[in-house]
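assembly run, all chains below
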Amino acid sequence: EPEVTQTPSHQVTQMGQEVILRCVPISNHLYFYWYRQILGQKVEFLVSFYNNEISEKSEIFDDQFSVERPDGSNFTLKIRSTKLEDSAMYFCASSEERQPQHFGDGTRLSIL
Amino acid sequence: AQKVTQAQTEISVVEKEDVTLDCVYETRDTTYYLFWYKQPPSGELVFLIRRNSFDEQNEISGRYSWNFQKSTSSFNFTITASQVVDSAVYFCALSELTQGGSEKLVFGKGTKLTVNP
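ok done. output:
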């Protein structure tokens, strides 16, 4: 069964550094999402992407965040200058229609 | 705004017991979808079920069953004859249509289920 793939599984970065989280959505899917889960808390929506543009973003998704679909297969989340509070699990999801959304296994981001 | 409440933070049962995880939601949409996801200790999110707001039939899948009651805005999840492998955090989620035309999921805080041998 096709699945959403995220790399790396764990990223450790110094505060202030830029980080790029990568995702390969399921190939025929059209909608792409990033969610965040701070340790022990609920999963929170960050951003959705459709037709090569952001369709919705949450309050969390400030100017430090950006998303890109650089080619036909990858979907990336960039954090320009990481803060300690960016430490979390980041989930990528994709869907063929609006849902159901299929999630990747997540990237655990640790900011030191 | 949409809201999902999972009042049970943690539940602990002994293997073979039945357990019900509660989910109550708030929405102003007339059409919406409800979901349950499982998050095992390894951290990934596993999709379990999607339910359309127009379909109030209960659903059973093996040891899992779901009870959707629109009148009480609840979408409860029951595991029958629980097993140790059911130990995980379970999230209920509600779809919310965004202004940009996509849908985002609004998650509850999750219920941590521990099944002891």
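The CA atoms of residues 2 and 34 of chain A lie 18 Å apart.

Chain A has a mean pLDDT of 93.

not gonna interpret more than that til we talk
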